[in-house]
Amino acid sequence: MPKIEIDEKTCKSCGLCIEACPKKCIAFSKEVNKLGLPWAEFVKPQDCIGCGFCYQMCPDVCIEVYK
Amino acid sequence: MKKIFSRPESLTNAPFSYCPGCGHGIAHRLVAESIDELGIRERTIGVAPVGCAVFAYNYFNLDMTEAPHGRPPAAATGIKRTNPDKIVFAYQGDGDIAAIGMSEIVHAANRGENITVIFINNANYGMTGGQMAPTTLLGQVTQTTPFGRDPKREGYPIKVCELLSSLEAPVYLERVAIYDPKQVLNAKRAIKKAFANQVENKGFSLVEIISNCPVDWGMTVMDSIKWVKDVFIKTFPLGIIKDKTR
Amino acid sequence: MKELIKGNIALCNGALDAGLNGYFGYPITPQNEVPEYLSRRMVELGRTFIQAESEIAAANMVLGACATGKKAMTSSSSPGISLKQEAISYLAAQELPAVIANVQRGGPGLGNIAGSQADYFQAVKGGGHGDYKIIVLSPNSVQEMYDFSYEAFGLAQKYRTPVLILADGIIGQMMEPAEFNKPKIDPNTPISADWALTGAKGRPPRSIKSLLMKDGALYEHNLELQKKYKTIAQNEIRCEKFLAEDAEIILVAFGIASRIAKGAVKLARACGIKAGLLRPQTLWPFPTEIISSFAKSGVTFLSVELNAGQMVEDVKLAVNGKCEVDFLGKPGGVLLSEQEILNRLQEIAKRG
Description:
heterotrimer; A: alpha+beta; two-stranded antiparallel ribbon; C: Rossmann fold; 5-stranded mixed beta sheet
């Protein structure tokens, strides 16, 4: 099953990955990181198709995609 | 399970200092991936501009120098001509390339320097806080066009690719965007080609990336993406402006 | 064997023998022989020559080439040198070993094309922004155009600093016999500098920058630069002395003015006036201590310059009130004659 890993420490909460995910697998976290921002959280791993759209849109290169 | 997408080797581990949602990060990654895929990292020398991307030397995992505002094409010329075996790229913003450095880019292109230029067009001066750029759209409000850019006062947005396309020497000029995954993948193709052209000694290549600057535009990230798609690229149409390699 | 040759060509030969990899220039009188001659020679030798779109671009091409450890040079004349000041500040900040030649003409503004020495302040006080110094060599003959041009590259590399050759239209244009006798350095000598951008192969990446935003980083960088300038000032001062030991009137002159001053010293000696000459060959670092060592009661200094009075300020600082300092000069590209200088020497001698 494909999966993604998001580095919550460097995520700046821009939301571009959330917008890009065709399966709506990513959502903002309830808590905040050291930057004081809710990070992008991989909330629906079962739906991930490993398309990498989140990686393509992440301006901080903090997502890794496995397939 | 295999890692299929991760940080390219040509980027350092330093987190970008760019604002949330800023297009520079995607552009940096696409440049780094292209360099990785062409296997040229160890012989690439980059030139950072003055502007937000001045810190590029912290983010690219390769040899980098800084040039005065607008002068990267001249510095890149000096590097490439005295080191023809190296791959040389200049990374510039719209103020750098189309205002203070207009002369340098036009003449580097006109000499057909075998270099690669990555040009980030985000329609304003980002680092200094959002003043008018040569590429600011008509009517666009910036810190120095509080009533919107008026062509009677400030002239019209400069289209760098079209302007350079009137020259004989440049081999490849393309304008791309990065507002959705499809556009990003297309931008990657263009950037990689611009580097491949240099590897193959084809000559001067420039890729203009229409980018977003949410903070200085006073927009949310999503609104800035929408503005690029609905407004920005109407003035700056995407596509290949010139390709002599075909 | 000596050759009868123009100063500007001798300057080129010095750079060529020093292993010049790239020349980047722009036409301006009275230095045009430099780009013209090198446009042929550099190509014949398989090296880089570019006629740039502006003096600004030329200086930044030098910046790029120097960042890779290559030997690069640009030349111009006064108004063009003003345009290069932006890059010179960056070159100093980024510690790049660039060589720049200024074959001065009359100023300010577009001025005229006659030889002049009005760019002294710009050269030695830091023509661009920020706290920096560059080595300034002052040739007064065609031979020294060759020698100093050659040596400029060694100094630039040794200290990682820009070096300026401050010549003028007369030395650039005049012909004299000169000998090109220095060992020829191979321009393809591998780059060993541990800072040069040669591609990050088998080592961490290098960056050459001048923007230092981290707290205290720019302060530290400035202290390092100042330390380097102090070392240069300790090691590299050059000053020619001519009949200065017993002199009661000591002329101080550089470049072409020093040739006229030397003639005047000889005339004065023939009239029984004890005149002598100190000729700074490095304008920065300035021979402050040498001048100071001659400053004592009963001695008068006379700074002779082809400008409205610039180096005289540094002479006064060196003398520091220990005796009188007088000035004789002409701005606007007009020459002084030996006789004019002699007249002033006679006045000073009469004044006692």
